[in-house]
Amino acid sequence: MSDQGTDEGYARGLKNRQISMMAIGGAIGTGLFLGAGAAIETSGPALIASYAVAGVVIFLIMRALGELLMYRPVSRSFVDYAEEFVGRFAGFATGWVYWLMWVVTAMAEITAAGIYVQYWFPDIPQWVTAAVVLGLLFLANLISVKVFGEFEFWFSMIKVVTIVGAIVLGLAVIVFGIGPAGEHATFAHLVSDGGFLPHGAGSALLALQSVMFAYLGVELIGLTAGEAENPRVVLPKAINSVMVRIGVFYVGALVVLLSLVPWTEFHGGESPFVRAFDAVGIHGAAGIIQFVVLTAALSSCNSGIYSTGRMLRTLAVHRSAPAAFGKLSKRQVPAASITASAIVMAAGILINAVVPEKAFAYITSVATVGVLWTWGVIVVCQLVYRRRSDRGELPASEFRMPGAPWTGYLALAFLALVVVLLGFGEDTRVALYVTPIVAVVIGAGYLLSNRPSRVKQRA
């Protein structure tokens, strides 16, 4: 298979080590570090099962994406695949939904950064930190893709090393009874205080909204295909590592945290990692974890600026956005698209100033709908592609999704279930109110972009 068309003016400046570390670090974000606090409070230890089950579905979605990427690795993958296998409207909608998803996700991350900084400086308003973080990362993304990649490499390295260290330290406390906390830490906490399902199976289902948000961003490596040095080698390895990352950083971390202290001591609005180590008396470790979760927020916001800039440029190349956004700077980055995206992200600063106590819940629920659409489109595209390749109409991918098409149908059913569950939460229900508005705006935008004059111009 040829890689023709993958060179879109971008510099192939992302090294294999950067993409590999981004893939590992991409599994560690504020959805786990901040969102898990509220999820533990409402679901108890059952949250572990929620992360494990959802993790299997995420792996299937990533394998579907991997099959498409090995068929044709392009940085504008989601839009290209949607147009080719579903239709032009699907490509238009997917591009704009994915752009919007990362815009609101970056809002969530700068919200989280504001909360984390208050751990050390409680008098600094959330919106001030949000503004500083957005400004610094915006400037970093304007310089070059190499700077973005290096930022992500070290952000991810800090997260990975520290979380592995925290898990090892926690296991030492639990297994060997190290320190004064050792006599209270036990795996029995997983089934005490009401059992593994203290609020019933329904609470584990309702937790899936925050769980799926925690996994948001795993598909980002698909956008790196056009800027990776060797996409056909590094991308399959990164995708296959998804299950290991989920097992260690989500399931493993939650087992340790909920064994250190009873689940009843975790609450929304605070990091469960910080709460656990504060509770066992290791206050220095809690400070370190607080720094790491701040790093996670910065990492995700950095990825958001990167992905929105590339996606907006892709839309412009497809004439689904103003042509000015399709230009690259002398440094081979989509500066105009990055700038426009960052300006919209600045709305998150206003949200933090107006409703700081609700900002994270509102924003994450809207972002979750966006990522559910994107993941669903990826699976649908893989199903169509597989049918066509099996008929000999297209070359077969060298990295095929296991169990297709049934695993694809399973993933789609699971995503539909999560959409339904969004309606059961007071805060998450906001996403369902916003979704029809977004759909109308995107539909109107599509009709305008496909007026006879615009169609003739594209031709």
Can you tell me about this structure?
The protein has 20 helices and no strands. The protein has helices spanning 16-25, 30-33, 35-43, 47-71, 77-85, 88-117, 126-143, 145-176, 201-206, 208-214, 231-240, 242-260, 272-279, 283-317, 335-345, 347-354, 359-390, 406-422, 429-449, 452-458. It holds the Pfam family AA_permease. Residues 19-453 form the Amino acid permease/ SLC12A domain.
Stretches where pLDDT falls below 50 for ≥5 residues?
Answer: 1-7
Protein structure class: mainly alpha
Order of helices and strands: HHHHHHHHHHHHHHHHHHHH
- Cα distance, first to last residue? 28 Å
Percentage of helical residues? 55-70%
Tell me the number of strands. Answer: 0
The helix count comes to 20
Largest β-sheet summary:
none
Look at the structure and give the mean pLDDT: 82
Rg result: 22 Å
Instruction: Tell me the fraction of residues in β-strands, as a range.
Output: under 5%
**Shape label:** globular
Features:
459 residues, mainly alpha, disordered N terminus, transmembrane, Amino acid permease, membrane
SSE topology:
Layout: H1 16-25, H2 30-33, H3 35-43, H4 47-71, H5 77-85, H6 88-117, H7 126-143, H8 145-176, H9 201-206, H10 208-214, H11 231-240, H12 242-260, H13 272-279, H14 283-317, H15 335-345, H16 347-354, H17 359-390, H18 406-422, H19 429-449, H20 452-458
Helix pairs in contact: 1-8, 1-11, 4-11, 4-12, 4-17, 4-18, 5-6, 5-17, 6-7, 6-14, 6-15, 6-16, 6-17, 6-19, 7-8, 7-14, 7-15, 7-16, 8-12, 8-14, 10-17, 13-14, 14-15, 17-18, 17-19
